[in-house]
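hey can u check if this looks right to u? its 133 residues, i copy pasted from the old doc so theres a chance i mangled smth
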Amino acid sequence: MKNIEHIGIAVKDFSAANGLFYKLLGQEPYKTEVVESEQVSTSFFRVGNSKIELLEALSADSPIAKYLDKHGEGIHHIAFEVDDILAEMERLKNEGFLLLSDIPKPGADNKLVCFVHPKSANGVLIELCQEIK
């Protein structure tokens, strides 16, 4: 793992959260996009070499909606940048971590992603990210 790529924050009101983080960080998000496969809207703010990702559910059955119903707003996941997501997935499986998928899938911000189940990571949802070249 190379570094913390971003911290994902689940929000109920995308517009209000973007306004809050604009005030907090003194900058607009550099990117917003919809990830249809996850039924989520995202926006990204740069903070040094890392990013903050805001996530808003687009449907009541999306993973973010379920998270918000159970936990409320707040930190949803920590994402780590990797050079080879398949090799890192295999390494983590061999170390006993439970992955939420067997293959990486396209995610936001031009990344391939895979998640590590929070039950195998002290309650923290971990995302692996590899830039799509």
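The two ends are 18 Å apart (CA to CA).
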